[in-house]
Records
---
Amino acid sequence: MIQTGIIVKLIGGLYFVESSDSIFECKARGVFRKEGISPCVGDNVEFKDGVIEKILPRKNHIIRPPLANLDRLIFVVSVTEPAPNLLLLDKFIAVAEYQNIEPVIALTKTDLENCEELRDVYKKAGIDVYVIDYREKDPSAGIRELLKDRISAFTGNSGAGKSTLLNEVCGDFNILTGEISKKLGRGKHTTRHSELYKLPWGGYIADTPGFSTFETNKYSVIRKEELADCFREFERFSDGCKFRDCSHTKEKGCRVIQAVSEGDIPVSRHESYCQMYEEAKALKEWEL
């Protein structure tokens, strides 16, 4: 009998599929390899007798780590030690927007440095920002509610406090945080396999490896013509541009540039956009 379920774990070619509150260990049909696709964590699948027969249509898919059907991507960003890399953060927010994944920012180490300026940049951009202060009684209450009945992933630079936040959200996960090497700015914790953790109040979360500047294009490659749509704060201004094909980088009569000069769009966000636009212009056709 054909059953349907969601892949919650992948280890060494074995897929663990949750269906009707039970976990089934499955293998994938060889035909998937011939078709150039692979089942991945988060996929809804049809399976029979321990074999995945069909991957149901995906809402979205990121390549590294391989995850499908994400509702939210939560970026854990420390305000200091290490200092936030806004260009890298903006690149990943753009990827989330491109993939129709809701981006959310969780600011950590707010007891060490003021976070208001950073928070305001992204709130002005229309992105939900949660300030995590471990001096409060329940610092992750807002994040916990956000995860309910959704598939979410946490990501962030090593040392930003991602694993600490995960453990705060639900200590039963027992994800080791390790000691941070100040010299390298990296944490010792690494995620060795893809897995969704089922939440007792509904929904799933996935832990992902820390991201780096070298892996950005492995998530999604965005064409220069599509990039402005990945900066949601541009939308209400772009129709007012003088030229229909305005790149929003240097043209006279650009309403987006005017909004930057008037303080309606954060300068750092527009700078990230311009740098990403130049990088997208330089992409070769085979890279797309």
---
Amino acid sequence: MKATLVRTEKLNEQVYSFWFEPERRFRYIAGQFIEITLPHDNADDRGTRRWFTLSSSPTEELLAITTRFSHQGSSFKRTLHELQLNDVVEISEPMGDFVLPKDTSSPLFFVAGGMGITPYRSMAKWLADTKESRNVQMIYSLKEAADEVFREVFAAAGIEPTLFITGHEAHAQHLRAHDILNAIQDDQTILYISGPEPMVENLEKQLKTAGFPANRLVLDFFPGYQPI
């Protein structure tokens, strides 16, 4: 399916949202992802396709993806960054089961690492727009507080993220399972984790070692994610 760029939104120095209008009605569930194909000249070995979680909500008319850029980006990211209004990309049908549970009474705990915030933005916007009330706690892991995005969307949904500042690589303090378990307030909580693959895999291993039930753990990792 083709989708036309309608708006580009700068969220901070490195993070941008791109808003597209699909050529026909597009149905998806908050938290799902799509593949974008962006043909361009001199494509590098990472190719012309990428997976992106939809940061928009099904309640919004346009589709949005949100991503981080580095100074030395891949050919795909450079082409994405340089898109002009009315440029057209190819998008796949929505996929994925990183979505809200049907039981609205289930307490939820969201853990986001970096751009792992995007599915939660979709869910929070959907909750706010539909006025559906959920019991949600949240930890948002970032290198620095200035990297935070979407706070106003979460506030509208009644969600108050607790920031976990890791610092930069040389002195990074990684989020650990005990940081999450100490914050969970209900023993029936469903735990969602979204972020870079190493972070999600490490937390999954630690949580299982700690005895957290696998049937209450929902994971969404960004394989090989780099801001390029």
---
Amino acid sequence: MPTTLLSHPAVDAVLATAAELLGMEVVFIGTFDAEGFAFARVLGSGLGVADGDRLDRADSFCARMLAGAPARTTEATTDPHYADSPIAAQLRVCSYVGVPVRSADGSVVATLCGADRRCMPVSEDAVAVLRHLADVLGAHLRAPLDAGTVIRRTPTGWRVSEPAGPAATGGATAADVRADLATSDLISAMVLADLLAGDVSVPPRPARPDSGLDEVDRLRLSVTQLEHALAARVVVEQAIGVLSERQHTSPRNAFERLRRVARARGRRVHHLAREVVGSASDGKIPLPPELAGPR
């Protein structure tokens, strides 16, 4: 799995929500390859593991969970499913919870987990929310619009494609690519934050917060709002690409313009973004003058 897919504000949001949900020393995304298990993304430093650390597949709690071990334990050192794993002793893990992250065809592409040296009970309700977060993460990994994506205008309309190499990037240097990645992450973070701060209403609309919600229900609502914001983010980022090329401006300026126009007209950003994307192939779609241009 390309690391750029996991170095994204959407993934940061999933990990932050999981950390609040579980209250454990670390939450992490695990991946598997022919060489074993990797801590692909780690939030927290309590266990001394970091992004990229590796284990033998059989030694990982995640592999055992996927093979049928309980999704949660608070006594890993004595639990027969986990006790003989070297990391139970090496990292002194007492509590663990993990759920699979699946692709569109149902195959496992990663795991979303938490671990702690303390005894940290995790309720079934919390596990259900963690599974929902894993679904959100899976959706992000299945349909990314990452920094490698090029949105360009062609004689037959707009196209979204991946660059084939140096020729497609105009001979960009490694520094240029790093700058593009940083810019992409910044724009993605701004879009996601704006959608979460606003009243995202991609149907079906999440229920409004209620003062009577307990902590798990509140986090479940947060996950639903995050899921809807991520769905809306895709079309907003596509619109940013269209506006950047159409008006010869930077992605950040394109986003600021899109947001300013939406607010001035009392409209939702992602609704207006959908019209901008549609206008790339249908010149009859009316747009505010600030967003129009040569087509």
---
Amino acid sequence: MIHKLETKIFHTTFGRNEPAQRISSGDTIIADTRDARGNDQLGNPLPDSMKPRPDGFEYSTSNPLVGPVYVEGAEPGDTLAVHIEKIELNRASAWSSHSPNFGSLTGEQSARRLLLNEPLPRLMFNWSLDLERRVGILALQNSRMKKIELPLHPFIGSIGVAPRYGRVETALTPGEYGGNLDCVETRQGTTIYFPVWARGAYLAFGDIHAAQGDGEVCGSALETTAQVQLRVEVQKSRAIEWPRMEDENFLMTTGSLHSLIDAVRVAQVEMLNWLVGDYGFEKWEGWQVLSQASTMRIGNIVDPNFTVVVKFPKTLLANSS
């Protein structure tokens, strides 16, 4: 069954928020997203009536999420497979920025003030998106070059399920539930496997990026909107610890922690567990092959947790049983 998802409240947290839709395993959802500041495809801001009610506390306004979607039959110990079937950019513009107390050049994230130097200036950059040519165009004001063009490679910046132990996490934070991974691999044609930590899974997503470099080092990508189509499948009694991904060419595992080296370790161990558990590798032989054949990408080094993606070529699995 295909569901056209109409989100009434765009939550900015991952958790057991009131579901926008209930679906079954095998169903498809189609939804229009908002950008990271809440603007829609026409540039209209998110109205107050569609924002979560804070009820006496301050909430993060970044990355309003579509959903959550309650998946019938999904229970702790299962895996939720999310097939990204389509990401159609639907706006001819994107924005990016760098701002005080955020990004890879500062340790002053969020409300903390950890450095004595003057913070970075707040600057906005407005990109034009040529959707037919699939390029982003930035007019340069103070450089020798007059403009720059980048190929577009849209992906979902923030996608995940309700976190473990009943926690609630902001849509800016990645973790064992997925979340704000900001990795370019969460694109059309990729399947993401999420561990289910709460009955119903509570899948939510948003924060579409038209393009981004590894690390999202300035703190934002080419932030825009899209219509997204996902097919959702419950894999019963298949327990995993961290999100995994797969496309035509690679198996991929993720680790998201504030220590970058710990994120590397988690992603590497998760890949080794996958090779041993599903593809029959002996543990230390698998570690040897993984050590020589894998590659790594840094999804982000700006969020409260940093994300690393380990990629293993599927061509090496041709003879596995």
